[in-house]
Specification:
single chain; alpha/beta; Rossmann fold; Histone, subunit A; 2 domains; six-stranded parallel β-sheet; 13 helices; 9% strand
Length: 305
């Protein structure tokens, strides 16, 4: 029999962390983070990490595992998560994987095409092209190579655009061809996929209020401290939503009010992209995180029994 995992997923600000905490307490479980930003140290406010108190109540894993200037990707996440899950199950605890990074969840539950190694010289050339022509030029170049990327790679996703071009440069084949060939048939777990969903107006209101609270809690000061530690605002980790806008304030490119409004808008767009990704998975069971909390706990208990 395959080991069983409960996966709690959904868009940003929907209430995943709170639901996962309550579920873990009810089924004697531990939580494995699947959020691509919560892996970074010193980035607490803008990533919405669980509080220190909550992390004492229930063990959380894969939070604060790399510095903001260190490389971290889906392949590393999968390797670390598999090892941690084995340890949790060795303690006879239940495993709850919680997060909104679809690629990380797919890598863990279905395997991953890792592809060839990187080409530093080619990447440097792409970085120079971005500086001169902008990221949009690279995206159009990628679309010309592989038109199907428009459904899987966002025009602003610099890391994945560069990686897709790099794979084509090294292998002569588009990334989508490699991924189709791989087919993601590695399924090491039996899964209960719990998707959290709210009405759009409710979700967007939560997003707006959450962004405001992050600024009130000191997100700008957090970014200023990161810069004081020597971390560049151009790092991948600091180009994420929230950090990018606060970085623009520090550079004098935006005022705080304008940066906050952009942060809200970009977070709403992120939530929309996350939902588009998750809705392709017909195995996900969708619930309201508060109105159906009891039903979620009941389904998880039956699944794990």
């Amino acid at each position: 029999m395959k080991p069983k995992l409960v996966v709690v997923l959904g868009p940003t600000a929907v209430g995943k962390s709170e639901l996962a905490l309550g579920l873990a307490l009810s089924i004697d479980g531990e939580i494995v983070n699947a959020d691509s930003q919560q892996v970074y140290r010193f980035m607490d406010i803008g990533t919405g990490k669980p509080s220190a108190e909550d992390r004492l109540r229930v063990s959380h894993h894969l939070i604060d595992v790399v510095d903001p200037d260190e490389e971290f990707n889906a392949a590393q996440f999968r390797r670390m998560a598999l090892a941690i899950i084995e340890q949790i199950q060795g303690r006879e605890k239940k495993v709850i994987v919680c997060g909104g990074t679809g690629l990380y969840l797919k890598a863990l539950t279905q395997g991953l095409f890792e592809g060839p190694g990187s080409d530093a010289a080619f990447r440097a050339a792409l970085d120079r092209q971005i500086e001169v022509q902008g990221l949009a030029a690279l995206y159009q170049r990628l679309v010309a190579i592989d038109g199907s990327v428009t459904s899987t790679i966002h025009p602003n996703d610099r890391q994945r655009i560069v990686r897709a071009l790099e794979v084509f440069e090294i292998t002569g084949r588009p990334l989508s061809a490699w991924q189709h060939e791989h087919a993601f048939h590695d399924e090491p777990f039996e899964l209960l996929r719990i998707g959290l969903l709210r009405e759009r107006a409710e979700l967007y209101d939560r997003i707006n209020r959450r962004c405001e609270q992050m600024v009130q809690d000191g997100l700008l000061e957090e970014v200023r401290e990161l810069v004081a530690r020597g971390y560049s605002l151009d790092l991948k980790s600091l180009r994420s939503v929230g950090y990018r806008q606060m970085g623009a304030v520090l550079r004098g490119e935006k005022d705080l009010t304008g940066a906050l409004e952009e942060m809200k808008q970009e977070t709403r767009r992120l939530a929309k992209r996350q939902l588009t990704w998750f809705r392709r998975d017909k195995e996900i069971l969708w619930f309201h995180p508060e109105k159906q909390q009891r039903e979620i706990c009941q389904r998880a208990g039956e699944f794990l029994a």
